[in-house]
């Protein structure tokens, strides 16, 4: 048995800030500066005082960066 939800379950994976930093290679200050500019997805509140990013939003942001890089090449 796997811990992964079925593809159509509607469940999404949450990433906490250290996970987002590891996935993007960007430090906290840069992430928040990009969010202020509207250039990086904002986290959602998962509990009072806790935020997380949807993994799908971070993956979409990465895909946009890769597409931009390919377009400039």
TrEMBL record:
TM segment ranges: none
A Pfam family of this chain: Phage_AlpA
Protein known as: AlpA family phage regulatory protein
Organism field: Candidatus Andeanibacterium colombiense
